[in-house]
Design a protein that fits this description.
Blueprint (H helix, E strand, L loop, with lengths): L1 E2 L15 E3 L20 E3 L4 E5 L3 H30 L8 H11 L7 E9 L2 E9 L8 E8 L10 H9 L2 H7 L1 E11 L7 E6 L1 H5 L3 H11 L7 H21 L3 E3 L3 E7 H13 L19 H4 E6 L4 E3 L7 H18 L2
Parallel strand pairs: 1-9
Antiparallel strand pairs: 2-3, 3-4, 4-6, 5-6, 7-8, 7-11, 8-9, 10-13, 11-12
Helix pairs in contact: 1-2, 7-10
């Protein structure tokens, strides 16, 4: 049984029937009890979707356009694959087709997109983007939002906006290219280990972190003291490396103020720890293997996805996104160090 979260969740908003506030939201714009215009994420009654409100007009349109472009690339790639099969692979790809294929490949690393819709929240109509709920089916969802890149202001930002962004999360951002806006994690209770406590940390906590503090926060989030955390860390690394591979190839976009959302189910981690304590081979380890063989369904309860695309711009002179890759590599380095501690 989980104890009450250590940080209070904001008051419930007035939403349409069948929808509710997304209680696993850990960062971004949220509902405010004293501001009816402030809108956070919603979830449905069990379809496994979340609903993200469009932000400022220019940012909301940019994010919506990105999801629509991604959906179009996926559809184009599906037709191309079908045509290639019919022609037994004959013919080559032009640059346009190659760019579409590369964009479509990002779909594996982004929550599924189901279009947009309008909902009345707190007696005001808002436009939402309908996305896959990455925590759907998780009994004890642990969620972390990690903002990637030293630079979090986009090319259209004013001097004032740039100055504000440079001052946020300065210690971690400049050294690691990472920010920690928030996370929630289930952990064994220190006083009663058989019970579980939910810990929630927000932006004020993240802004206080230096490099060592950031590393400790990740160790807390990944339950590094748990006997089965290696399985979790290996799968997170696999997914982070796959995202890195895509970014090394792409010259289409530069991602500013974009995040990685890391989710896993603590209940599954507990089950692995229990089976590991009984018979070592039952949790997927070979006695003589250097790395664990991950449970076949690990990707169902361990998910790493790219999110937040309101500040994506075409890559200048087709240059790699070094800003994003710097932060991503820092995150990979930290997780690797935890794994080999």
């Amino acid at each position: 049984m989980a104890k009450k979260a250590q940080e209070k969740v904001t008051a419930s908003p007035v939403v349409p029937m069948g929808y509710s506030q997304l209680l696993t939201q850990v960062a971004g714009h949220t509902f405010e009890a004293t501001n009816a215009a402030a809108v956070g994420l919603l979830q449905d009654a069990g379809e496994g979707c979340v609903f993200k409100p469009l932000g400022k007009p220019e940012c909301g349109v940019r994010e919506l356009n990105f999801y629509e472009s991604l959906a179009a690339a996926i559809a184009t790639q599906a037709k191309a694959d079908a045509g290639a099969n019919n022609l037994n692979g004959a013919g080559g790809e032009g640059k346009g087709e190659t760019d579409q294929s590369l964009l479509a490949a990002l779909a594996a690393h982004v929550p599924r997109y189901y279009g947009q819709l309008k909902l009345v929240v707190n007696q005001r109509e808002h436009t939402f983007i309908k996305l896959e709920d990455l925590t759907h089916g998780m009994a004890k969802p642990c969620v972390m939002d990690v903002k990637i890149g030293r630079r979090t202001w986009d090319p259209l930002s004013s001097l004032e906006k740039r100055t504000i962004e440079e001052q946020k999360y300065a210690l971690c951002k400049q050294n690691l290219g990472l920010c920690l806006p928030g996370f929630q994690v289930y952990c064994p209770d220190e006083e009663q280990p058989e019970q579980t406590v939910l810990i929630r940390k927000g932006r004020d906590y993240g802004k206080s972190l230096d490099v060592m503090g950031f590393q400790k926060a990740l160790a807390l989030f990944f339950n590094a003291s748990c006997s089965s955390s290696d399985v979790l860390l290996h799968e997170v690394l696999n997914q982070l490396r796959s995202i890195r591979t895509w970014f090394k190839q792409q010259r289409l976009f530069h991602f500013y103020a974009s995040s990685l959302l890391i989710c896993y189910d603590f209940e599954q981690l507990q089950k692995l720890a229990t089976s590991n304590s009984k018979v070592s081979l039952h949790n997927g380890f070979h006695a003589d293997a250097a790395e664990p063989v991950l449970p076949t369904k690990s990707k169902e309860w361990i998910r790493v996805r790219c999110i937040d695309f309101a500040h994506i711009f075409p890559a200048e002179d087709a240059q790699p996104d070094h800003n994003y890759m710097f932060g991503l590599q820092s995150l990979i380095d930290i997780v690797e160090a935890m794994l080999h501690r």
